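The following block was generated as part of the benchmark described in Methods. Ligand: zinc ion.
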Amino acid sequence: MTSMTSDRTVRHERFEFIRRMPKAELHVHLEGSIRAPTLLELAARRNVELPARDVAGIERWLTFRDFDHFLEIYLTISRCLRDPEDFQLATAAFLEERARENILYTEAHLTISTHVANGANGDEIAEALAETVAAGEKDLGVRLRWIADIVRNVDFGRADQTLEWALDHLDKYVVGLGLSGKESHPAQPFREHFAVAETEGLHRTVHAGEQSGAAAIWDALEHCGAERIGHGIRAVEDPKLLDVLRERKIPLELSPTSNVRLGLVPSLEEHPLRRLHDAGIPWSLNSDDPALFHTSLTQEFEAVGDLMSMDLRELAGLSMTALEHAFLEDSERTSLQRVFRTWFANQGVDGFPDGR
Ligand SMILES: [Zn+2]
C-alpha cells in the first residue's frame, strides 16, 4: 500500500469514527444554530422580511462578511423568535440535528434579554423550552441544558433581567450564566451578577480572550469566577495565564471555524489550538454559531482531527474532556461517561487521555 493510500484509509477511518462516536458540545448559541429552512418558516410566521426567500439565498446571506453584518444577522434572527412556539420550533430542529450527529449532551447559550426586549415573555419561553428539552431527551436520547447569556455591551438593566430569568428557571434545565458581546466592555461591572449566580448554584462561563487579549481572561477569572472560558485563544500570549489555566484546570471552549470566519486567526493552520494543547490546557471542541459559520460539531472534529493527525484514542479523549467539564450533577455526569466509555470500548478504544 502506498503511503498516500494509507493516509486516505486513516482519514476515512477517522471520519467514520467521528460521525458515529458519542459527542458533547459546551459552546453553541441557539440563535446562531437556526438553519435556513427553519429560519424561513419562523420569518413567515413573524412577518419578518428576510433578504432572501429561498434556502440558497438565505445561506448566502448567512455567510459572514464583517462584524457589523454578523450583528445584523443576529438581530434579524432574534426578531424571528417571539412566541413560545417559535422557540420550540427552533429548539426541536436543533435537537434533531444533535441526534443526527450523535451529540448526546449539549449546553446551549440563549440571549434571553434580547427576546424579552423584542416582546417575548421570558416565563412562557422557559416553560415551552423545558417541554421541548424533555421531549428531546425522551424521544431522541439527546440532552440539552441552557446557559443564559448576559451581553456586555447592551443596556445594563438587561443583565439583571438575565440573572433573574436564570434563577427563576433553575428547575427548567438552566444550568449556567454566561457573558458574551464586545470584549472592549469589561467584565468587572458584572461581578455581582456572577457572585449571586455562584451562591445560587448557577455555573459560570465567560467569552474572553477572543476579540481582546489575555487581560480579558484574567478579568473573567477574577470578576466572574469563570469555571470555563469561551474561546480564550489569546491565552497563548501570556505564559503566566497558561500556568494558571493548567493548574486550576480551567478549560477553553475552542471553536476554530468561528475564529477563522470572524477573521481572528488567518487560517486553521495558524490557529493556536496546538500550542494551547501542548501547554497542557484542557479544551473542548465547539461549533459556536454553526448556521452562521456553515459548520457543525462533526465538521469541527474532522478539521481538527486532520490538522492534528489525531488517532481514535485522542478523538475519544476530546469527547470525554467535554463531558468532564460539563455543568452537570456528578451522578448525571457519571452515567453519561459510562455510556461514552462503553461505546468507545466496543470499538476497541480505551485508555484515552482524560482531562486533556
Ligand atoms: Zn460564542
